[in-house]
Amino acid sequence: MRRARIIYNPTSGREAFKKHLPEVLEKLEIAGYETSCHATTCEGDAREAALEAVRREFDVVIAVGGDGTLNEVVAGISQCDKRPKLGLIPMGTTNDFARAVHIPRNVEDALDIIIAGDTIPVDVGILNEDRYFINIAAGGRITELTYEVPSKMKTLLGQMAYYLKAIEMIPSIKATHMRIEMDEEVFEGNAMMFLCGLTNSVGGFEKIAPDASINDGLFTVMILKECNIADFIRIASLALRGEHLSDERLIYRKASRVSVTSEQEVHLNLDGEYGGDAPAKFQNLKRHIEVFAPIDDLREIDK
Ligand SMILES: Nc1ncnc2c1ncn2[C@@H]1O[C@H](COP(=O)(O)OP(=O)(O)OP(=O)(O)O)[C@@H](O)[C@H]1O
């Protein structure tokens, strides 16, 4: 019998997962999985639990929570040589990665995808050889937004909490002088932000990197050069519609290795959480993890 380990954040998704747990366990049992669970208690716990699941040779690890929990589970399994397959039941506010691989935000439907058993290989990003991300790495003042929103506010307001925080932060957004190497190319100058994306979805903006492939071994790198606040807002609203790519203030490239240095302080954002400060070396680990996903919906992705 195959063995599955569920790692869930009991506080995410308005604490809704617990009531689904008996039905989830029963369905997995019927599908041929002997399943056990771990409820996370604090930051970092999902990473340890995932690492422990690898040591105990589980065939499948199922991450239940938001992008933060998913990031920790990915970090736990990515550092191992023999990696279990990864299932995902999204319960967070934004669920960028789940959107990118077409996993619905409904417990039963997401579980059905795991039970159907199809997987796709996905790229994983690694920062400075010891931190991992599956969706995005970023830097620049505005990218601090995601971890400055208190989780109580997210529970109460959902996505609106991020919009309100963005409005509050706008006056403090400023450019930082950075040197960014993208494979052979170098940008040096003042930038509002940079993004190093693995998927097409960032902060719920699903058209921000329209040509991103989740398993081509390349990051989509975006650098927004220094601009005034009015232009910043204009480019952000173009990005909502996927019409930002031709803007002259935006550098848009593909690269498998990216490094960022600055004489100023640059906080890094990894999958929405604070991930330390620059200098940063990002590397794309091509097709590092197998993720359960609805492959019929993802035909355009090279399997
Ligand atoms: N029992 C817990 N109590 C408080 N915090 C926890 C607990 N378990 C995990 N965490 C922390 O909460 C962080 C955020 O959780 P998660 O991403 O699952 O949910 P979310 O904040 O609701 O979703 P999103 O990030 O999509 O808005 C995790 O990165 C983890 O560090």
Question: What report would you give on this structure?
Answer:
With 303 residues, this protein is α+β, with helices and mostly antiparallel strands. The chain folds into 2 domains: 2-117, Probable inorganic polyphosphate/atp-NAD kinase, domain 1 (Rossmann fold, 3-Layer(aba) Sandwich); 133-284, Tumour Suppressor Smad4 (Sandwich). The protein is built from 9 helices and 15 strands. α1 (17-30) packs parallel to α5 and α2 (45-55) runs parallel beside α3. The longest helix has 14 residues, at 17-30. The protein is globular. The two termini are 26 Å apart. The model has no long low-confidence stretch (mean pLDDT 89). Bound molecules: adenosine-5'-triphosphate (ATP). Residues 9-12, 40-43, 45, 65-69, 72, 92-95, 151, 154, 272-273 line the site of adenosine-5'-triphosphate.
